[in-house]
Amino acid sequence: MSPLQQLALVAGMWVALHVLVAGSPVRRVIAGKIGEGGFAGLFSLLSLAGLVALVWSYRIAAGAGVNEDAWLVPRPLLWAPLLIMPVALLLFVGSVTVANPTSVGAEKLLQRAEPAVGILRITRHPMLWAFALWGLAHALANGDVASLLLFTAIFVPALLGMRSIDRKRARRDPDNWARFAAVTSIVPFAAIAAGRNHVAWREIGVWRVALALGVYAALLHFHHALIGVSALPW
Q1: What local confidence, expressed as pLDDT, does residue 148 receive?
Q2: Which among 207, 179, 211, 192 has a CA at the least distance from the CA of 86?
Q3: How far apart are CA 40 and CA 104, in angstroms?
């Protein structure tokens, strides 16, 4: 098996783990046998192992003499990560600094008087959107097979996982979920555009924007040292 074939296999297993197991009736069968806590622990362990395998396989497949070009990237698309990543990082920072009812084990937050605050007013899945945008931006800017396999494997589960989480939360607590869903949206700004919520920049906070931009600047500076290629499109 070639390194690219191995990466394709690992990427396929990563997608299957998150889409066909975590996002399907298979999850309920496994959780019914080992409990929700057991499933969460097992899934976390498999996800960590899968992530390590994915990164390791990518590093081998991306090596000189192994990787192949899938297409010639148009020069404007080289700017995609530079323009999209600040948004992705703000969503990520917002997701890890605001308690979210869609997070694992946080279902009780649906009972709060105001279940959607801060970044959740923009989208109820800020972390998944952060990963989806990260994967999409880098898939657009890289035309080699290894990068397309890696970033597609990140993008697809993140995007499909949003509906999956919604269905699980709605099944477990339909009344409180309906109240939360009524003032939020999967698509960023959709609930706001429909008049069901509003942007509260004070809740998001200047410090979160500053933190996201700081991480962005650090990634630009250390990208070559960490990844081996410059993050700049020139």
Answers
A1: 97
A2: 211
A3: 8
